[in-house]
């Protein structure tokens, strides 16, 4: 186990476990990339305890529920308010999750949220965000040293769409 990072959690899971979550089993995986940016190097083995992650991204509808119930304002919305107060009305709207959260996109993944927004949502849902290593292991789908969760084939209209 030379040069292996061991990540232990005090509990299995990411907080409250629900039916829409999947178990990622304990074990080693190869993290990083020799071909990626410097922050992805060096490739190294990591051991993770078992944990759960949501099977699907958070939808616009679910994020809207969170905002409605809590009154939460996202990072972009708070920054937009600061700019308006300092410089007067801006020439357009800032890119916030609300622009893309239209009724026909209710089940689409929420976008234009910061880490802080995602963390606030996760806490509200009685969960936590995965660590970088947990996210990478889950996203790899069991493959090692592959470019994508499905292997090395390029994305297209049948993948990553």
Keywords summarizing the entry:
161 residues, alpha+beta, 2 domains, 3-stranded mixed β-sheet, two-stranded antiparallel sheet, 13% strand, globular
The low-confidence parts are: none
General form: globular
Mean pLDDT: 85
Binned strand content: 5-15%
Instruction: Indicate how many domains the architecture comprises.
Output: 2
Please state the CA-atom Rg, rounded to the nearest Å. 19 Å
* Total helical segments: 5
Kindly report how far apart the N and C termini lie: 38 Å
Helix percent reads 25-40%
Q: Walk across the major sheet and give the strand order.
A: 1-4-3
Order of helices and strands: EEEEEHHHHH
Instruction: Give the helix/strand class.
Output: alpha+beta
Q: Based on DSSP secondary structure assignment, what is the total number of beta strands?
A: 5
Largest pleated sheet: 3 strands, mixed
Give a summary of the structure in a few sentences:
By secondary structure, this protein is of the alpha+beta class. 29% of the residues lie in helices and 13% in strands. The strands form 2 sheets. A 3-stranded mixed β-sheet has the order 1-4-3, with helices on one face.
Describe this structure in words.
By secondary structure, the chain is α+β, with helices and mostly antiparallel strands. The chain has 2 domains: 5-56 and 127-140, no CATH class; 60-121, no CATH class. Helices cover 29% and strands 13% of the residues. It has helices at 60-70, 75-87, 97-100, 115-124, 132-140; strands spanning 5-7, 21-24, 27-31, 44-48, 51-54. Strands 1-4-3 form a 3-stranded mixed beta sheet, covered by helices on one side. The chain has a two-stranded antiparallel sheet with strand order 2-5. It is globular and about 45 Å long. It starts with a strand and ends in a 21-residue tail after the last helix. The mean pLDDT is 85.
